[in-house]
Amino acid sequence: MVMDSCFQIERKKWLFLVGLVALTHLFCQSLMLPYGNALLSLLPSEKNKELEMVSESSGASNLDNESLLVRKMKNYNVGIDDDKEEKVNSNLNDDDIDFVEDETVGNVNVDMEEGFMMHNASGESAILPPLIVTPDKPLLIESVVEKKSESEGSVYNGSDHRMFLNERKDIPSVSSNGSLVPNKRKMRCLMPPKSVTTINEMERLLVGHRARSRAMRPRWSSERDKEILTAKLKIESPPILKNDRELYAPLFRNVSMFKRSYELMERVLKVYVYKEGQKPIFHQPVLKGLYASEGWFIKLMERDNRFTVKDPRKAHLFYMPFSSLMLQRTLYVPNSHNRTNLRQYLKDYSEKIAAKYRFWNRTGGADHFLAACHDWAPYETRHYMEHCIKALCNADVTIGFKIGRDVSLPETYVRSARNPLRDLGGKPPSQRHTLAFYAGSMHGYFRPILLKYWNDKEPDMKILGPMPPGVASKMNYIHQMQRSKYCICPKGYEVNSPRIVEAIFYECVPVIISDNFVPPFFEVLNWESFSVIIAEKEIPNLRKILVSIEEQKYLEMQLNVRKVQKHFLWHAKPVKYDLFHMTLHSIWYNRVFQIKSR
Questions:
Q1: What percent of the chain has pLDDT over 70?
Q2: Distance between CA 32 and CA 362 in Å, rounded?
């Protein structure tokens, strides 16, 4: 009896110890593993085995040799979204984001922060940083290099690198005489949007999201969160600002709140910039061309000493410094019609920082941010970076842009990396004799409609097609904008256009014609004070709308364009209220109004 009693006691001790170890393991895993994989690590299922096999076989990441198995994060629907936005995004899937290849592929002519070479149109040899692809770490997943069957073939217009048709939408059908007829469904960018969110509806969404945060509640409290919540209270009740020397009140929704928020950003905000990631996708910005905004932000953020910290525990926000342009140029396989490996690369990167640091897991990525200007960025950052703050040039509410959380990043066409302010300015109003000017390629469905109505129709309306190549033609384009009252900024393949910032750069009042486009810095700027926003359906009335604007109103808007100009300029050494600081401020501002306490 004594032996049996002792045996039972020993058995209970062992059971207690095993249970304690299991509980300790679960607790540690809940802190360290992303998105609650603790239970899965103890109780593997068939689904987990499949995920592990995919993780091992795909080899899409070249970040390191570790297996970074992280389940896709659940959608945390906190608060009630506006019915309009829910309807717009409820049926959105990856195929709804168009696959239009960069028109500059194969003709690389960019200024890099460091020496960088790639294949160009002449077929010259390229030099890339080593170890992007190794035999034991293949860069591309198998679906990228698999040859499509004939029934899944794609139509590709070789004369235009940006014209790709979705490969699933041209399966042939049989006509009445028995012959095969291609059944091609147009890309989304070649058709008008199915739904339109007006500027007034965007205003209501912004107000609603300010009142009801969509962010995930943090898994544990942080002193940094408390500092942001304290700043929020101060921003919501700012001292009334009158006749500020640096800020022009008509440009802002609430200049007092903006001023207070900007001052608190300078005083409080600390950012940790992740060092992980290999060049050229990470840490190597492109400073010239159509997508230069993301490059300038990467450069200035990584060189900053005022806001950045080396200790991530002191940071309020975390920056992932990748270039969406270099992601496309480095990883995309020409003519593959597949971007899966680009998204997989960012997925693996987010998993790496989630496994290495505890900060991503605390908020689900809600205190992390990125800046991306390539058209594909909304697709590449979906799912695995869905809860981050995204500063995007392609700010389209129909493909997932979240008003009040995401930031509309101005698309700036930088012609000179050494002197981004070259040719700045324009003629005074009295010397602007052209009512409206536009010249550009016929990208998308809308620009041909613009020319159909207004090309060579009125002497004071210079609505043209593509400009001829050459320096003289480029200078003529600039001079036309500098001499016009209104500069037409129509959508192309996507909703964004560099002409908006170009118009401001040359002191021409921008006329934005792009349904569902969220204007840059929408959360703080009053765009009605310095621009004209017209619905696409009003294109037949374009001239009527412009001539109906009284001269005094035009003079006010033109003055406001000159005043707002400083907020849209890049400087090699950032200055107060410039484009770098405005972008960082909007990221800070949206985080302030989205944060939740534990």
A1: 71
A2: 10
